[in-house]
Amino acid sequence: MLRTGKVHTLFASRAGRAAVMIGFICLSAAAGAATDINVVAGTSGAWDMSLNDTNRKCRLYLRVDTEAAGHALGMPSGCRRALPILMDVTAWNMPDESRIELADKDGKAILSFAPANENALAAKGPEGETYEMVNLNPAYRTKVAQAQTSTQTLAQAQPRTPAATAATRPAAQPQQPALPPARMSDIPGRYAVLRENGRDTGCMVTLMEQSRGRGQNRAQLAPACRDQGIVIFDPLGWSLERGQVVLTARKGHKLHLDHQPDGSWMKMDTKPIGLKRI
């Protein structure tokens, strides 16, 4: 017979070891689920989401900055009417480098998108319907194709050598997308103003280091600009807010630009507009 004290000690020891194992498993799972920030940055930007066999479509803006449920996500106000499944979507996540999840405020996945072809991701809805997401940045599709080719080449060329020899071989470094600047001091410079498909308007705006108060720096549009919409907007100030470059017009309204993998800043809606450093 074991004494009571020894029994309690035995159970406590086993419970302690079990707690340690559970904690280790949870930490390992969390580490495996984490996706490199370079991959997140390369995936962020504008995506078109559509419901197959219908004309229902929505433009989503996947952002790098994080919230409680995952990475921030933006969409026009009409999206939730066009695609009701987006009613509770507030964030997005990447459980691995090939999938995108649209999540609710608690981080629960509502739609889980996986590669369907080289241009699109697809997900099944609760009633068996199919949704697709297509990235609007050509650089993203090029990056995906390069990554697939690189993976296949590395797999075919992998030698069957001892681990010690393999450890001494430098790993292949895939091309990384440009990360969004984290500080306002990274932004100042001269920028070409772009329209749809990266078309250069011939206009140029200078984002300056001089402050104009209230957290903004000065901006100045070059006088040679002939794009009437840009001339009317006439940016006078700029700031960096939640990972976006925000231009302030002469009359006070603002334009929010999302960072793109090629280093440019774009607002992707019915009339795309953006900036690219000269």
Protein architecture, described:
- The chain has 278 residues and is α+β, with helices and mostly antiparallel strands.
- It has 2 domains: 37-139, Beta Barrel (Lipocalin), CATH 2.40.128.10; 184-277.
- It contains 6 helices and 16 strands.
- The chain has helices at residues 4-33, 37-43, 79-82, 138-157, 163-167, 228-233; strands at 45-51, 57-67, 70-74, 91-93, 100-103, 109-115, 120-124, 130-135, 189-194, 200-213, 216-221, 235-241, 244-249, 254-259, 265-267, 273-277.
- Strands 1-2-3-4-5-6-7-8 form an 8-stranded antiparallel beta barrel. An 8-stranded antiparallel β-barrel has the order 9-10-11-12-13-14-15-16.
- The longest helix is centred in the N-terminal third of the chain and has 30 residues, at 4-33.
- The model is unreliable at 4-13, 18-34 and 163-167 (pLDDT under 50).
Mean pLDDT equals: 78
Let me know the largest β-sheet.
Answer: 8 strands, antiparallel, barrel
Helix/strand/pairing class, anyone?
alpha+beta
CATH class wording of the largest domain: Mainly Beta
Number of helices: 6
- Report strand order across the widest sheet: 1-2-3-4-5-6-7-8
% residues in beta strands: 35-45%
Low-confidence stretches: 4-13, 18-34, 163-167
CATH architecture designation of the largest domain: Beta Barrel
Record field, number of beta strands: 16
Helix share bin:
25-40%
Tell me the series of helices and strands, N- to C-terminal. Answer: HHEEEHEEEEEHHEEEHEEEEE
- Domain unit count: 2
Radius of gyration equals 24 Å
CATH topology of the largest domain: Lipocalin
Give the distance, in angstroms, between the N- and C-terminal Cα atoms. Answer: 83 Å
Form type:
elongated
